[in-house]
Task: inverse folding
């Protein structure tokens, strides 16, 4: 006997408006989600106050920069009185390359100085931090304590000692002598920073390499050193940025040797005194001199963030 076909009721489309009514309890869930997304009055006030504070600090940071850029395009020997220059000119930038000042030499010296100091600092700190982190030797505890104590004294206390030492080895007033002094001054802080990063790496990685027949040097070069590349980038960038704007020690060591001047020392020549000041050319040199700094920062920003974030997590 043939059974009659069962008739299926046609599907009724559910519109968005009818969806909450069609599904029991759905309207209540949607109402709860909307209420969760809504901020309370106190949270909303805190959010807008935070935004206002950030905006104020942003203006305090950008307004001086805009004023220096405006002054670099202004005519005359004084700072611009307004953000928009009254008399626009490119003469200040042209004077930096007409041979009157050695601005290209200053930039070249600064780039050489920062790159050399940063590279050698990374090499020395990477080996020093690994020794303090993994090896146990006589004087280790007091060596770490000595590095920490050195940071407590201002660098100005050792200026005279540096000067006499460089004069003794005939490197006073030279760029190489300044490099050696700056490398030694940046080792203590960077060594502690790098050591903390190596301490966060598990020792099991090296022990596994020893089981496979690797020596301590091979385990360091092939296992530990590749893992510390983010922190190596952080140390290099910190050294680069710090050396580029360093003035006091550079001016004291280089003295009257104008061929070895860096950008920070060379800029001082535009503002000798209140009566002998050329602020527009000073501003133009400051704007152009900051370009290498911005290029290095923008190109290595991701390494800086990665190194600092990974160094903050142990394990």
Result:
């Amino acid at each position: 006997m043939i059974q009659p076909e069962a008739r299926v009721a046609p599907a009724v489309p559910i519109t968005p408006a009818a969806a909450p009514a069609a599904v029991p309890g759905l309207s209540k869930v949607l109402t709860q989600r909307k209420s969760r997304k809504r901020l309370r009055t106190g949270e909303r006030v805190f959010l807008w106050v935070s935004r206002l504070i950030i905006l104020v600090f942003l203006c305090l940071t950008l307004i001086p920069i805009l004023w220096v850029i405006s002054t670099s395009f202004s005519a005359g020997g004084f700072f611009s009185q307004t953000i928009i220059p009254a008399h626009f000119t490119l003469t200040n930038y042209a004077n930096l390359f007409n041979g009157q000042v050695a601005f290209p030499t200053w930039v070249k010296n600064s780039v050489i100085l920062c790159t050399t100091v940063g590279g050698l600092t990374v090499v020395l700190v990477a080996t020093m931090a690994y020794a303090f982190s993994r090896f146990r030797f006589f004087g280790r505890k007091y060596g770490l304590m000595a590095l920490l104590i050195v940071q407590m004294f201002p660098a100005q206390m050792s200026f005279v000692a540096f000067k006499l030492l460089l004069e003794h080895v005939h490197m006073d007033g030279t760029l190489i002598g300044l490099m050696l002094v700056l490398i030694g001054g940046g080792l203590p802080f960077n060594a502690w920073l790098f050591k903390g990063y190596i301490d966060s790496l598990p020792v099991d990685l090296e022990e596994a390499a020893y089981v496979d027949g690797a020596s301590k040097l091979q385990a360091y070069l092939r296992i530990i050193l590749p893992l510390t590349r983010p922190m190596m980038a952080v140390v290099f960038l910190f050294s680069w940025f710090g050396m580029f704007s360093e003035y006091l020690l550079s001016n004291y060591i280089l003295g009257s040797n104008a061929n070895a001047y860096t950008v920070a020392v060379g800029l001082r020549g535009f503002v000798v005194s209140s009566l002998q000041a050329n602020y527009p050319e000073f501003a133009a040199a400051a704007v152009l001199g900051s370009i290498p700094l911005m290029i290095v920062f923008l190109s290595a920003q991701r390494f800086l963030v990665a190194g600092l974030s990974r160094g903050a997590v142990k394990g």
Q: What stands out?
A: The radius of gyration is 31 Å. Residues 41-94 form one domain. Confidence is low (pLDDT under 50) at residues 1-6, 16-22, 311-315.
